[in-house]
Design goal:
This protein has helices at 2-12, 47-58, 64-71, 75-87, 102-110, 162-173, 228-248; strands at residues 18-44, 91-94, 97-100, 112-116, 120-127, 132-134, 149-150, 175-176, 182-208, 213-220, 225-226. The chain has 249 residues and is of the alpha+beta class. β8 (175-176) and β9 form a beta hairpin.
């Protein structure tokens, strides 16, 4: 941490008009959430599957052999497809006749096949100070010194917003699999707080003599960059007081 502080001070003082009035180190809390969710795999429905669903919708189909004769396709192949359709909830048996489920009707209309995938888990990182989810940190975080204090404008509160978590998961996890099929988050199953990381931040209170302005710079070690959100928070609360204090001094 000392080396980082020295490097940052030197960077700020490269401008000869800048003075460092005060500096401090404190920490912000970042909640690590364990999240369990499900995705679906979406693909364009092939012609044969669409024909089978249309036949089930419009005709009384009792056996794969009926469709095999109708579509001139090998019975075993039809049987395998129908078994898959039952397993994925597209068709069902009612009094020995195959019927379309609501899901089957919807997917027939859209022409898009949705296949459920296994449950998955991931970690999300929420900062209540920023009121936003953070990317996974790539920096090696320093341990918090017992003498460092919690960020003075931090509001500690447990995160509990299913919709926001679902939205963040969708942004992170929606995409294409290795076979080019679209995969989409379909359900948030659960989430719970695993732990809270205390993230060190280095604060510098500065004065630019040429521009006659007081301002803050805050280095966030989780993000490994200057944190403009924390800087704006501090300036909104304290900039007027800095001018009064340092002019009097």
């Amino acid at each position: 941490m000392d080396k980082l502080t020295t490097r940052l001070r030197a960077s700020l003082l490269e401008n000869s008009a800048v003075e460092i009035k005060e500096s401090a180190i404190w920490y912000v809390p970042v909640e690590i959430l364990d999240v369990t969710f499900k995705r679906v795999k979406r693909s364009k429905m092939d012609i044969l599957m669409k024909m089978i669903l249309l036949a089930v919708e419009q005709t009384d189909i009792r056996r794969a052999a009926n469709l095999s004769e109708m579509l001139l396709v090998e019975e075993l192949f039809i049987a395998d497809l129908m078994e898959k359709m039952q397993r994925t909830g597209l068709i069902y048996l009612e009094r020995s006749i195959f019927k379309l489920t609501t899901k089957g009707q919807e997917q027939l209309q859209t022409g898009i096949l949705e296949e459920e995938m296994e449950e998955e888990g991931t970690e999300l990182f929420y900062s209540s100070v920023h009121d936003e989810f953070m990317p996974e940190s790539t920096s090696s975080l320093s341990e918090v010194n017992e003498g460092w204090k919690l960020y003075r404008y931090a509001e500690i509160q447990d995160f509990n917003d299913n919709d926001r978590i679902f939205h963040v998961l969708s942004e992170q996890e929606n995409g294409l699999d290795e076979n080019g099929f679209q995969t989409v988050v379909s359900e948030l199953i659960s989430f719970e707080q695993q732990t809270v990381e205390h993230v060190p931040c280095l604060e510098f209170q500065l004065y630019n003599k040429e521009q006659d302005i007081y301002y803050a710079r805050v280095w966030n070690t989780w993000l490994a960059r200057w944190d403009d959100k924390l800087e704006k928070q501090i300036e909104e609360h304290e900039r007027v007081e800095w001018r009064r204090k340092w002019i009097e001094a």
